[in-house]
Amino acid sequence: MATRKSVSSQRITLDYNNCLAEAVGKEHGLRPTELDRIERLTPKIAEKLATQRKNGKLPYRDLPYQDDMVASVLASARAKQGQFDNVVVLGIGGSALGTIAVHTACAHPFYNLLADKDRKGPRLFVMDNVDAAQFGALADMLDFRRTLFITISKSGSTAETMTQFLICRQKQIDTLGQKKHAENMIVITDREKGYLRPIAQQEGYETFPVPDGVGGRFSVFSAVGLLPLALTGVDIKNLLAGAALMDGSCKEPRLRRNPAFMSAAIQILFYNRKKPMSVMMPYSQALRDVADWYRQLWAESLGKVRKAGSREENVGPTPIKALGVTDQHSQVQLYREGPNDKIFTLLGVENFGRELPIPEAFEDVAGVGYLGGHTMNELMEAERRATAYALVKSQRPNVTISLPAVNEFTVGQLLYMMEVQTSFAGELMKINAYDQPGVEEGKVATYALMGRKGFAEAKKEIKALKSSKKFII
Ligand code: PA5
Question: 423 near 45, Cβ under 8 Å?
Answer without folding.
Answer: no
